[in-house]
Structures are given as C-alpha cells and as structure tokens.
C-alpha cells in the first residue's frame, strides 16, 4: 500500500504546465500501451464532455470533463503496481518518469480509472476500477470483478475541471492543440502511431489526428537532417535530428523550433528570434493562381534532450545560454543548429526577404537619416527584424554609433597611456575614427534643420479651409510656449531660424511668466537674456542685453491702431526698465535702464497696416528686399527689426544652404 503526500506533490508541480498537459500525459500512456500490446495497432479515443447547457444564447457549452480510452493491455498487476508507485521506473527505458499522472489532479477535481485486463495466471479477463486518491494513497476505492468482455482497454476519466482553467470550446481547435504537443510521436520513424480520435460525447463530431498529416496537406514534411555539436571545453559530442514541416493555414502562429524529449514537445522558440526572415508566413502558389500560406515547424530530437528534461517535461535542465560547467550544450546552441538546418530548406525565400530588408534600411538611411551612412557598412542586418520600424532601425544604428565611439575613445586612451612610443599613423587612425563620429552628429543636426525649415514652409501655407495657421503653431516651432531654456535644451529649440547667435543665449522664456508682480504687462512672446546672470546667479546687472520677440499670425492683414507690435515690444522694454518685472523668485527687480541694450524683433507678414506702423508711426528704414524694416527707436531706446515670415524662411535656408548641399538634401 502506497504512502505519499499526494496533495503536496500536486501543489509542487511546475506552473509552466497547461490544462492540456494531463491530456497529453494520458494519450502518451495510451500510445505506449497500444504500441507494446497488439498488432495491428489499436486506437485511442479522447472524449470531450461538456457542461449541461443552461444558457439561452445557444453558445457552445464549455468542456468540463475528458475521457481518454486506449486499447492497450489494461491495468494488469504489473501496470497497476507501476501506477501505485511514486516515480516508478517501469517505463524508464521509453522515457517514463513515473510522475506525469499527478498532472491529472492538478487540473481536475476527480480522476477515475476503469480497465479490462487479462490475468496471466488463469487466463480470465477482469474489470478493475479505482479512484486516484488525494491524501496518502494513490489508489483508493479499488474494485475487481470478472469481465464479460475479452477486449482489453483502459479508460481514464478526468472529471470536473477546476475553477480558473478552461479549454477552447471548438473541437477542431482542441484537436490541433493536442496535436502540437504529441506530433513527435506521429512522425517518429521507429514505430507506427495508433489512430488518435478526438470525439464529442454525443458523437456529433469526430476528428482523427492523422488527418492533419495527410488530408488537404495540412502538415507536410520538408526535410529530415542531423547536425552535430562539439564542446571545445569538454570534448563532448552530441547529434540532433531535425525534422522540418510546413504547417498550412497557421492562423496567428509563427514559425518555431520545437525541442522534444521522449517524443513530447517541451519547449518552442520562434525561429525569427534567430533568423528574422522567418517572422512572417510563407506562401505557396497554387495551380489556380491563388496562394496558400504556411509556417515552418522544426522538431528537434536527441539523447541529450531526453536525458536533461525536468520531471514534468515542461523545461530542460541545461541553461538557455552557454554553461559548460554543468552541461556541455545550451539551448541557444541547439536552437541555432536547428535553425540553420531549417534555413537551408527555405534558402531562396530567406535570401529574397533579406535583400528586401537590406534595401528598406538603405532607403531609410539615404532618404531620412543620411548621417548614418558611415555606419551602414558595419550594421549587422541578420539581427534586425524584416518588419523593423524606422525607429527600430535608427536605434540599431545609434547602438552601432555608440559602440564605435567608445571603441575609438578607448583606442585613443590606450595609445596615450601606453609606455611605448606611439607612431603618428596609430594616432591619426584613432583620431580619424573620432572625427567620423563628429561628422555623423553634425550631419544629423543639419538634416534636422532642413526638416524644420520644411515644417516652417508648410505652416506658412493656407490650410484646407483657406485660413492661415495660428500664431502659436509658428511660436511652438521656434520655441515651445510656456517653457524656458532650463526645461528645453539648446538642441531641442529652433531659435537659429531667427538668429544663429540666439542659440547660445543663456536664458530664454517663451510666453512664460518671468515676474510675480501684479502690475507687470503680461508676458512677452519670447524674451532672451544674453547671460543667465541677468537675474539667475545673483549678478543682476544693468549691462546684460535682452532681446524681445513678438509673433503675429501668418497672413494676418487686419490690425487696429492698438495692435502696433513695435509699441508692444517697446512697452515690455519700458516696464522692465521701470522695475515692473522681478526675478522669478521675486528676490529683486530685474535690473535694466536706458543703457541696457534691448533688441526687439517682430515676425509677421507685410500688409498696409504693418507698413504704416513701421514707416509713418515709428520711422523705421525699409529693407532693400522690401520684406521688412529696421532701425534704432529713440523713443524706446532699442534696436528694432520687423521681418516677414518669407524673409525669415529664406534667411534660414540661405545660412544653411552650403551644409544642405554638402549632404545633398
């Protein structure tokens, strides 16, 4: 009589098992029983039992219990004692671990066994029934009686699926899920697998799993090959058999490498993680000019896999990566070997997909990221997805750039720190690498400028409704509204559109409060302090220049006399001089007087009213191109310049034209 903590054993079962694990275990036991018992081979029936229909929507009831029936020798004394022995060695020669049956209790509340067997002593046939215990005994409620049948069989009833688990309701889906896990048995060259049927209890549907291997070419063998792995540290050698199959109409599945132990799939690895060209389905052209899609599954077998699998057969004991201390070969090495075998079977498709990916990356770099051209020749394409987005491609190129930069700097440091005298060629070569990194950064910066100018050009056009863009769109392009230079780094704003010198200003506020005083005159669109010490570091000095910008909506032509933008800037300057603006912390007034250099810029489109403001009211000088005005305004004691949007754009293009030409953009 067995004594074992059954519930403790069940509770310790790996969480990686699934609701199909006990079904597969029972089917495999049936396969082994059928193969060893009789010729011709018998059959295995998996009967799906559903809940009683209580819903009114006529949906398919859930599967609640399952019966697995095989035509093997049944639970004779030998098989009965093996079942009653924890970790029995009765099936050790064929990979049995004497543990799998405990999976029944992990997923089902009750397990009953019924079997007819032939007694070897008296030649009579007996019916044996018992329950799978949950306390200290494996076999409970056992009963034996003479059988009226002379046909041996075993029926395992897995009753009442536990809460929290469920099966797919569709019988065809269930059949395919089971097939995925036991297909190694069905493609084993060493024996003929018995017929395995998936049945509905009411006999409304019946599926023979072998049909998927023949009917309508659902699963077709492509190639069988063997590869050898050698361990350089231990001199161990292991051979692995790989069987490559096409799976037609795969649904949402992807091509996989399936590692099997004792003819059961233990782990699956997507092939595209090793060879990206397997990420998408493959297509086969049919005679009627249509196509049929399929994925690839390669099944890997070997003694090394059989000997190093966990008790539950849900994982392998060797490491994912190389670990020769405990095991000579890792999963990665085995998977890569199988992937290479698989790749050879679809070499032409893989080659075409690789070339398409290569062309896609080249086009992206040439058209959108020319600063990466220098690194393109060193980019390892084999590790990049065929469906990689532009962001993913850019990330890979940035990684390569960073590695090259670090490598070049390390080389410089090595040369400089070496006790040996370095020759000029070594130093020049290392410096050249650093220089190339700088060139790519500059190219990136210039390319971004081109994109910003194109964006400005787009914003200056009328929208689909005939209206112009709002002033804030232009404002945000040049410098985000409500932000200052402590929030926005210099490479993230575009003040260079206005004046290259502004890029190096130390503090910039864009439509952002620079005062806590209630009597301040609002906030300027954009105010630039040439030095932070104007009010940031306690050195609040009168002599530090400030620049004020005012933006008007593109294509605006209607202004009242109160809308004079020159007067608006002048009023801001005057209020600052009068001490109406304090430092943001409110510690003191911003220091400015009549000697403080003030520069004012109005960005707008020319119209009659703007001409009036500039010429008649403020006596400014018209620029030669007639796209603006400039002059020193004695009333406000500041230099003022009015610039049209077109002049702004053309000026930015002209200043950067030589760089654009060098990059051919």
What is the number of helices? 15
Rounded radius of gyration (Å):
40 Å
- The level 1 CATH classification of the largest domain is Alpha Beta
Low-confidence stretches: 532-540
Can you walk through the features of this model?
- The protein folds into four domains: 6-211, Histidine kinase-like ATPase, C-terminal domain (Heat Shock Protein 90, 2-Layer Sandwich); 215-345, no CATH class; 352-441, no CATH class; 471-652, no CATH class.
- It is elongated and about 125 Å long.
- The chain has helices spanning 6-11, 21-37, 77-83, 103-107, 171-186, 303-307, 331-345, 347-368, 373-376, 390-417, 424-459, 471-478, 565-577, 608-617, 645-663; strands at residues 43-50, 63-70, 108-118, 125-132, 139-146, 153-161, 195-200, 206-208, 219-230, 237-248, 256-261, 264-270, 282-285, 291-301, 483-484, 507-510, 526-529, 546-551, 598-603, 621-622, 628-633, 638-643.
- It is α+β, with helices and mostly antiparallel strands and 665 residues long.
- Helix content is 32%, strand content 22%.
- Helix 2 packs across helix 5.
- It has 15 helices and 22 strands.
- The strands form three sheets. It has an eight-stranded mixed beta sheet. An eight-stranded mixed beta sheet has the order 15-16-17-18-19-22-21-20. Strands 9, 10, 11, 12, 13 and 14 form a six-stranded mixed beta sheet that branches.
């Amino acid at each position: 009589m067995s004594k074992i903590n059954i519930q403790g054993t069940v509770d310790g079962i790996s969480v990686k098992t699934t609701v199909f694990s006990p079904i597969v275990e029972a089917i495999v036991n049936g396969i082994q029983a059928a193969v060893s018992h009789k010729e011709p081979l018998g059959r295995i029936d998996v009967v799906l039992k559903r809940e009683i229909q209580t819903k009114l929507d006529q949906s398919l009831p859930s599967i609640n219990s399952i019966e697995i029936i095989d035509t093997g020798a049944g639970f004779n004394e030998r098989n009965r004692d093996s079942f009653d022995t924890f970790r029995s060695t009765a099936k050790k020669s064929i990979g049995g671990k004497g543990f799998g049956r405990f999976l029944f209790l992990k997923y089902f509340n009750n397990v009953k066994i019924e079997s007819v067997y032939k007694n070897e002593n008296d030649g009579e046939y007996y019916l044996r029934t018992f329950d799978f215990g949950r306390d200290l005994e494996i076999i409970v409620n056992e009963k034996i009686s003479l059988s009226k049948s002379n046909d041996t069989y075993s029926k395992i009833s897995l009753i009442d699926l536990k809460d929290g688990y469920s099966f797919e309701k569709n019988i065809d889906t269930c059949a395919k899920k089971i097939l995925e896990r036991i297909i190694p048995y069905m493609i084993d060259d060493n024996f003929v697998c018995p017929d395995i049927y998936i049945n509905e209890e009411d006999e409304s549907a019946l599926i023979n799993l072998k049909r998927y291997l023949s009917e309508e070419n659902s699963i077709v063998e492509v190639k069988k090959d063997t590869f050898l792995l050698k361990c350089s540290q231990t001199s161990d050698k292991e051979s692995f058999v790989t069987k490559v199959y096409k799976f037609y109409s795969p649904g949402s599945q992807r091509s996989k490498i399936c590692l099997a132990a004792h003819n059961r799939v233990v782990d699956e690895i997507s092939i595209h993680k090793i060879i990206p060209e397997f990420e998408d389905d493959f297509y086969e052209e049919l005679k009627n000019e249509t196509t049929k899609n399929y994925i690839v599954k390669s099944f890997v077998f070997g003694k090394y896999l059989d000997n190093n699998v966990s008790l539950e057969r849900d994982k392998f004991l060797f490491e994912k990566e190389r670990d020769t201390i405990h095991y000579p070969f890792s999963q990665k090495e085995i998977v890569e070997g199988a992937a290479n075998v698989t790749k050879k079977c679809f070499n032409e498709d893989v080659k075409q997909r690789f070339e398409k990916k290569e062309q896609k990356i080249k086009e992206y770099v040439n058209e959108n990221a020319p600063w990466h051209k220098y690194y393109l020749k060193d980019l390892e394409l084999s590790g990049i997805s065929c469906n990689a987005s532009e962001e993913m491609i850019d990330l890979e190129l940035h990684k390569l750039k960073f590695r090259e930069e670090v490598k070049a700097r390390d080389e410089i440091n090595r040369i400089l720190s070496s006790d040996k005298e370095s020759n000029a060629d070594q130093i020049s070569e290392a410096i050249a690498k650093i220089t190339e990194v700088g060139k790519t950064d500059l190219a990136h910066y210039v390319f971004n400028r081109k994109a910003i100018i194109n964006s400005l050009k787009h914003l200056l056009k009328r929208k689909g409704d005939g209206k112009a863009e709002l002033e804030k769109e232009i404002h945000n392009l040049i410098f985000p509204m409500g932000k200052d230079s402590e929030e926005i780094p210099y490479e993230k704003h575009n003040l260079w559109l206005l004046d290259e010198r502004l890029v190096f200003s130390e503090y910039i506020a864009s439509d952002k409060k620079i005062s806590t005083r209630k009597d301040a005159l609002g906030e300027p669109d954009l105010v630039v302090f040439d030095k932070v010490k104007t009010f940031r570091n306690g050195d609040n000095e009168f002599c530090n220049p400030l620049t004020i910008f005012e933006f008007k909506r593109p294509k605006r032509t209607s202004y009242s006399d109160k809308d004079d933008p020159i007067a608006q800037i002048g009023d801001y300057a005057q209020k600052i001089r009068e001490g109406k603006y304090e430092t943001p912390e409110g510690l003191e007034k911003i220091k400015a007087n009549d000697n403080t250099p003030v520069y004012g810029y109005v960005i707008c489109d020319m119209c009659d009213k703007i001409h009036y403001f500039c010429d008649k009211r403020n006596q400014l000088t018209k620029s030669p191109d007639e796209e603006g005005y400039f002059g020193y305004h004695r009333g406000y004691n500041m230099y003022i310049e009015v610039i049209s949007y077109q002049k702004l754009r053309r000026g930015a293009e002209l200043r950067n034209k030589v760089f654009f030409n060098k990059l051919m953009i």
